[in-house]
Structures are given as structure tokens and as C-alpha cells.
Amino acid sequence: MDMDTDKLEAVVKRLRRAQGQIGGVIRMIEDGRDCADVITQLAAVSRALDRAGFKIVATSLRQCIADPDGAAAGGAPSEDVLERLFLSLA
């Protein structure tokens, strides 16, 4: 299924922010920063990535609801596929 890129702009922004955070975590490790600070930043990156994944799954679900015929014609992932994707993030 082709995802509506306009609806996923927020996801792209979140992923770009996470990309920057990962670079920051790498610099923190290279600079010998405190373990607690590094873990705090890693947790923030992890949450950002999880939210991005959930948003992508939610967008797919909305598209399936809006166009159930598209889902039946093979244009969208099945309910089982979406459920597996959702659970893989949990």
C-alpha cells in the first residue's frame, strides 16, 4: 500500500529528530559522558522511534477503513499484517 506522504510529514520530522538524537548519543559516549545521561537520551530516541512506528501503522489502518475495497484488492495490508506490525512495536 502506498502511504499518504502528506499525512506522514510529522513522522518524517520525528525520525529526523531521532536521527539527530542518535548522533548526540554517539557524541556523548565518545566524550565519556555519564551513563545515566546516555541512557536518558537513548530512552528518548527509543520513544521517538516507537511513536513514529505507531503513527505509520495508525495511518495504514485509517487508509484501510477509508478504502476497504482497496484493501480487498491487494492495495492495502490485511488486518492480520497490520496487527503483526503493531505488535512488533509493542
Secondary structure topology:
Layout: H1 9-30, H2 35-66, H3 68-72, H4 79-89
Describe the structure in your own words:
The chain is 78% helix and 0% strand. The chain has one domain (9-89): Metal-sensitive repressor, helix protomer (Methane Monooxygenase Hydroxylase, Chain G, domain 1, Up-down Bundle), CATH 1.20.58.1000. The mean pLDDT is 83. It is elongated. The protein is mostly helical. α1 (9-30) packs antiparallel against α2 (35-66).
Number of helices: 4
Mean pLDDT: 83
Specify the helix fraction band: over 70%
How many β strands by DSSP? Answer: 0
Main beta sheet strand tally, sense and closure: none
CATH topology label: Methane Monooxygenase Hydroxylase, Chain G, domain 1
Q: From the coordinates shown, what is the CATH architecture?
A: Up-down Bundle
**SSE string:** HHHH
What would CATH call the homologous superfamily? Metal-sensitive repressor, helix protomer
What is the name of the CATH class?
Mainly Alpha
Radius of gyration based on Cα positions: 17 Å
Which strand-content bin applies to the residues? under 5%
What's the shape? elongated
- Residue stretches low in confidence (pLDDT < 50, at least 5 long) are none
The structural domain count equals 1
Structural class: mainly alpha
Q: Kindly, what is the distance between the CA atoms of the first and last residues, rounded to a whole number of angstroms?
A: 22 Å
Describe what is shown at a glance.
It is built from 4 helices and no strands. The chain is mainly α.
